[in-house]
Structure formats: C-alpha cells, structure tokens
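queue> pop job 88
queue> type: inverse folding (structure -> sequence)
queue> payload:
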C-alpha cells in the first residue's frame, strides 16, 4: 500500500490531509506547530517527527505551506525534505509559490533521485473540506499519474500543465484576477452604500445578472456583516499579488490594475488585517 506524507496542516492542509485519511489511505503528517497534528492523528494518521522523517518514510509526500519562504525552509532547512528524499520517492508541493521557488525545489529533489510535482490549488477552505479543489499540476508526469488517486480525494478537477513553473504561473494568474474582483466588489459596495443604496440590494442585483459568481456570493455577505472569519488569509492573497507583479516584471507584461490592487492589500495587511479573511480588504476600502 502506498504510504503518503503530508507537511503543513494549516487551514488548507488540515482539510486536505483529512480527506486522504478518511478515504482510507495511509498518511503520515507533520506540522511546524505539532499541536495541529492531533486532529489528524485522531482520524487515523501517523505523526512524523520532521519533514525529513516523513519524506524518508513515505512513497509520496505532499506539502501545503504558507509561502515561498516556508516551502524553502521545509525543503532545504535542517531535517528538511531533501535530507529524507531518496531515489524514486515523490514530493508534491501544493503551496502557492512562484515559479523560481518551485524550480529550485524541483532541481534539488531531482539531484537526490527524487521526483517532483508542483500542484497548487484553486479553491478555499470549504472546497478543501469537500474535496472539490481544482488542482494545477506540473512537473513529473509519472508522479502525477501515480498520485492521481490521492489527488482525486482532494480535488474535483485537475490539470497537468507541463514543466515545473507552469502550475505556479497558472495559480498566480487566477489569484491576480481574484484580487482584482475582490477589490472591485468592495469598492462598488462602498460606493453604492455612500450613495444611499442598500448593500443587500447591491449583492442581489449583481447576482441576478452577468456578474453573478461564487466569489461575490461567498464574500459579499461578509462585507455587509462586517465579520471576516478566515477561509483565505488576506496575507496570503497579498503574497500572491506580490508574486504576480514580480512575474509581470519578469515577463514584461504591464499589470497596472493588479499592481494597484497589491498596494491596497499591502495597506490592509499593514492595518492589521493579515490573518483575517481576504474579504477584510473592505475595512480599508470603505474608509
Ligand atoms: P495557513 O493556514 O496560514 O497555513 C500555513 C501552513 O504553513 C501552516 O501549516 C504553517 O505552520 C506552515 N508554515 C508557515 N511557515 C512555515 C515555516 N517557516 N516552516 C514550516 N512550516 C511553515 O495557510 P493556508 O490557508 O492553509 O494556505 C496554505 C497555502 O495554500 C498558501 O500558499 C496559500 O496561499 C495557499 N492557498 C490557500 C487557500 C485558502 O483559501 N486558504 C486557497 C488556495 C491556496 P504552523 O501551523 O506551524 O504555523
């Protein structure tokens, strides 16, 4: 039976690993704060002592970490994945990072005889819980095929996008668009309310027309209630916008509006909303 590892049990990783365990797969988990392993162990997972131990014990190890710095730390750091990975073993990083980070990890894993796939996801906490994420994979095709049964426990649709870096790029394109949609919704609602419109009417009118979409439907009510329980931390959206702007620099693609959106999210982060949901950007927009 294939042994799976899972590194990083935050909002997303906890739900994704739980779906693997509930499906009856053999899973070993690790998290920097070990307390987050307890719910997975209660479900039937084993707990590993370090990324090195998990990568050494498992055929395929998944990771779901905060950002490029975390992805590098878990791979290259002391007792990291590189110290445990060996010939034929697979490492699948599902964190949202940039193409440079993904390529650096892929190269180091390959040097040790391991196989690497990047597989960032589209979808937030609820799709992670429901196993309905959209998986944006690129890298080792054999590993992609081998991991398919596990990927299908976490996602409803998956793409194989080619060489390492293409998954990261696809994810950044999606989140750059999402950041723009989020701020447009916030500015529209703030404008409408200052103009005497009822917030619920604005959302209902939007939802009745061509602009109806799950993002507005999910986040819109948060703006009206002024409460932002975290599904997607605002700090991670700002990280994705920062990485998208850097990709635009690298490729020579002007990103006038995305760069402006990044500044709004930076402001929201500086104002202390980083751990709140992405929709909390409304708090700085409505002022
Ligand atoms: P999260 O709740 O903040 O979890 C982050 C995870 O990274 C935690 O397990 C954390 O460990 C770990 N971590 C952070 N820095 C680390 C370090 N230096 N060394 C080791 N571990 C470290 O974030 P999340 O929402 O699950 O998101 C995870 C990734 O998925 C991010 O790249 C995010 O952009 C992406 N994503 C998120 C969503 C969403 O809606 N939430 C959707 C799609 C993609 P500790 O518990 O010890 O802090």
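queue> result:
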């Amino acid at each position: 039976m294939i042994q799976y590892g899972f590194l990083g049990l935050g909002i997303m990783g906890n739900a994704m690993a739980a779906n693997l365990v509930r499906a009856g797969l053999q899973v070993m988990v690790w998290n920097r704060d070990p307390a987050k392993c307890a719910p997975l162990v209660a479900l039937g997972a084993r707990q590993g002592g370090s990324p090195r131990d998990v990568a050494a014990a498992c055929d395929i190890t998944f990771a779901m970490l905060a950002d490029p710095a975390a992805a590098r730390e878990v791979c290259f750091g002391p007792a990291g994945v590189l110290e445990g990975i060996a010939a034929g073993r697979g490492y699948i990083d599902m964190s949202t990072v940039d193409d440079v980070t993904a390529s650096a990890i892929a190269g180091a894993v390959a040097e040790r005889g391991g196989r690497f796939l990047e597989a960032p996801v589209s979808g937030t906490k609820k799709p992670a819980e429901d196993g309905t994420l959209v998986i944006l994979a690129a890298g080792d095709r054999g590993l992609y095929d081998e991991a398919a049964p596990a990927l299908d426990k976490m996602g409803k649709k998956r793409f194989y996008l080619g060489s390492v870096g293409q998954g990261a790029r696809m994810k950044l394109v999606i989140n750059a668009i999402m950041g723009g949609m989020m701020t447009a919704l916030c500015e529209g609602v703030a404008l409408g309310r200052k103009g005497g419109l009822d917030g619920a009417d604005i959302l209902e009118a939007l939802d009745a027309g061509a602009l109806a979409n799950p993002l507005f439907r999910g986040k819109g009510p948060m703006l009206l209630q002024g409460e932002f329980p975290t599904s997607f931390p605002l700090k991670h959206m700002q990280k994705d916008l920062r990485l998208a702007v850097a990709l635009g620099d690298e490729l020579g693609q002007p990103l006038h509006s995305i760069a402006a959106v990044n500044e709004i999210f930076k402001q929201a982060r500086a104002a202390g909303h980083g751990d709140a949901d992405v929709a909390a950007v409304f708090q700085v927009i409505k002022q």
